[in-house]
Amino acid sequence: MSLKDMRKLRSFQNFDEAAEHILHMLSKQMNINTLFIAKNDGVTNKIIKAVNTREELVQEEALRLLNRLFAV
């Protein structure tokens, strides 16, 4: 599928809408509970957008020390 075809399928109004859609799709495909987008400053991660499908493990806007967070 080309980029032009993908744009026809879905358009987003802002980053939050796009991020939420992408995270939900990935979490379903990967069959995982928690997926998030974060900003990293080398010491902490600031969770920008998070999806928890069963149990809430990560909250949006939370700050997490890098040595306390497992991310792949």
Mean pLDDT level: 81
| N/C terminus separation | 27 Å
Helix-strand makeup class: alpha+beta
* Percent of residues in beta strands: 25-35%
Helix percentage range: 25-40%
The number of distinct helices, counting runs of at least 4 residues, comes to 2
* Molecular shape: globular
The run of helices and strands is HHEEE
Radius of gyration: 14 Å
Please describe the biggest sheet, giving its number of strands, its sense, and whether it closes into a barrel. Answer: 3 strands, antiparallel
Low-confidence stretches: none
Strand order in space, largest sheet: 1-2-3
Total count of strands: 3
Could you characterize the architecture of this molecule?
The protein is α+β, with helices and mostly antiparallel strands and 72 residues long. Helices cover 32% and strands 26% of the residues. Strands 1-2-3 form a three-stranded antiparallel β-sheet. A hairpin with a 3-residue loop joins strand 1 (34-40) and strand 2. The longest helix has 16 residues, at 15-30.
Entry summary:
The protein contains two helices and three strands. It is of the alpha+beta class and 72 residues long. A three-stranded antiparallel β-sheet has the order 1-2-3.
